[in-house]
Amino acid sequence: MSDERSPTPPSERIVGLDALRGFALLGILVINVRVFSMPEVVLFNPTAYGDFSGANYWTWLAGHVLVKQKFITLFTLLFGAGVALFTRNRERDGDDAVALHARRSLWLVAFGLAHAYLLWYGDILVAYGVTALFVVFARDWEPRKLAMVGTALLLIPSTLEVLSALAVDPATLAASWQPDQSTLQAEIEAYRSGWLGQMSHRVETSFYRQTSGYIASTSWRTAGLMLYGMALFQTGVITNERSTAFYRRLVAVGGTVGLAAILAGLWYIEASGWAASASLYWTQFNYWGSIPLAGAYLGLVMLWATWRPDGTVTRWLAAVGRTAFSNYILQTVLATSIFYGHGLGLFGRVSRVEAFGIVVAIWVVQVPLSVLWLRYFRYGPLEWLWRALTYRTLPTMRVDAAESS
Questions:
Q1: What confidence score (pLDDT) does residue 228 get?
Q2: CA torsion 171→174→176→180, rounded to 10°?
Q3: Fewer C-beta within 10 Å: the chain N or C terminus?
Q4: pLDDT tens digits for 290-309?
Q5: How far apart are CA 341 and CA 72, in angstroms?
Q6: Backbone torsion region of residue 124, taken as left when φ is above 0, otherwise alpha when ψ lies between -120 and 50, otherwise beta
Q7: pTM, rounded to two decimals
C-alpha cells in the first residue's frame, strides 16, 4: 500500500522548526555522554567519580551552565508543538486525529521500552509517549491557559524535591549523593561486561525511571513543557513567525534570567563545598534557569534560520532535525558501542574532556550522514517505520526526481 498522506514538501516545511530540533538533538548528547561513559551518579554529583579538576572541571562547568536540561527542554517543547501540529494536520485531512495520535504515541512507548531495556536506561521516548496520551486533550486551549497549567505542573516536582530536602534522612541523602566504592565498581563492571551482564543495572534503573521516577518528577516536567510547546506553537514563536525584534528580546531576557539563576546555583553548591545537605536545593536553580535559557536558544536558532535560511548550518541542522528519531537511537548505538563491554569497553575509563571529544566525533558522523540520507530518502529509517505503524500503510521512501531537483 502507498501512504496517501504525503510528507510535507521541503518548500513548505518550517525550516526554523527543523533546525531547532536538530540543534536540540545534537546538544542532548553533551549531557547524555556523561552517563554513557561514567556511573549514573555523576549526572547529579559530578564530584562522585572521575577527575574534577583543570580542563575536566571546565568541561563539566560549560556543560552544566550551557547545556544540562536546556536542550532536553527544547526537545520537549518541540514534542509538545509536534503534538499540536500533528493533530491539526490530521483534523484538516478529516482523520480521527486523537485515535491516530494515540496509536502513534503507543508505538513510541514500544520503541522506548525496547531502547531502555535493550540498549540504554536513559531513554526519553517512554516518558514522551505516555505523557503525550494525556496532553493531547489540551491542544485547543488558549495559549495563556496552556502556560498557566504548564507552570503549575512544573511546580509540582520542584516543590516535592524541596520538601524532601527538608525531611530526608541525612544518611540516606549522603549515600545517594556519594555512593560507596563497591556500588560504583559494581556499575562499572556491569557496563564493561557483555550485553547480558549490563542488564543487572539497566533493567532496574529503567524500571525505576519509568515508574517511581516518572510519577514523582518526569511526568510533571514533561507535561508542563509540552503544554508550553503547544502555546509556543499557537503563538507562532516556535515556528519562526514572530518578528526579529521579538526573538532578540527573547534571547536577551531569556539569556540574562536563565544564566543568572544557573550561576547562582553554581555559587551555592560551590560555597557549600559540594555538601550532600545542599544537593537537593541546588538542582532547583538549574531546573528553573534552564527554561528561560532554552528560550534564548530558541530565539537564536530562529534568528539564524531567518538570516541564513538556505545556509549550510541551517540546512545541516534541519537535516538532523528531520531525522531526529533515527539520530537519537543512533547516538545510543554509537555511544554504547564505544563505552560498553560489547564494544570498546571504555566505560569509566575516559575523562570528561575525552568524552566530549567523542561527542564531537559522533556529531561528525551524524550530521553529514543525515544530509546525505535525505538526498535519497524522504524519511529517516525509524521515522518511516513509525509512520508506517501509525497509518498502517507503507509510505513511499525514495525521493523522486521532482523533489530532489
A1: 98
A2: -100
A3: C
A4: 999 999 999 999 999 999 99
A5: 27
A6: alpha
A7: 0.95
In the 3-class helix/strand/coil scheme, how is the chain assigned residue by residue?
CCCCCCCCCHHHCCHHHHHHHHHHHHHHHHHHHHHHHCCHHHHCCHHHCCCCCHHHHHHHHHHHHHCCCHHHHHHHHHHHHHHHHHHHHHHHCCCCHHHHHHHHHHHHHHHHHHHHHHCCCCCCHHHHHHHHHHHHHHCCCCHHHHHHHHHHHHHHHHHHHHHHHHHCCHHHHHHHHCCCHHHHHHHHHHHHCCHHHHHHHHHHHHHHHHCHHHHHHHHHHHHHHHHHHHHHHHCCCCCCCCCHHHHHHHHHHHHHHHHHHHHHHHHHHHHCCCCHHHHHHHHHHHHHHHHHHHHHHHHHHHHHHHHCCCCHHHHHHHHHHHCHHHHHHHHHHHHHHHHCCCCCCCCCCCCHHHHHHHHHHHHHHHHHHHHHHHHHECCCHHHHHHHHHHHCCCCCCECCHHHHC
Taking residues 118-140, what's their average pLDDT?
98
Q: Give dist(CA 199, CA 17) in Å, integer.
A: 37
Calpha distance 347→333 (Å, rounded) = 14
Q: Which residues pair with 377 in a beta bridge?
A: 398
**Distance (Å, rounded) from C-alpha 300 to C-alpha 162?**
33
Whether residue 11 is predicted with pLDDT greater than 70 in this model: the reply is: no
Helix axes 279-307, 312-322, angle to 10 degrees: 120
When pLDDT is cut at 50, 70 and 90, the band that residue 171 belongs to is: confident
Taking a C-beta distance cutoff of 8 angstroms, is the pair 232, 77 a contact?
yes
Q: How far is CA 107 from CA 4, 24, 128, 200, 380, in A?
A: 20, 22, 11, 26, 16
Instruction: Look over the chain and give the mean of its residue pLDDT values, rounded to a whole number.
Output: 94
**Using CB atoms within 10 A of its CB, is residue 173 exposed (0-12), middle (13-18) or buried (19+)?**
middle
Kindly report the number of other CB atoms within 10 A of residue 26's CB atom. 22
Q: Quickly tell me which residue has 491542544 as its cell.
A: 139
> What does the radius of gyration of the chain's CA atoms come to, in whole angstroms?
21
Is residue 49 within 8 Å of residue 334, measured between CB atoms? no
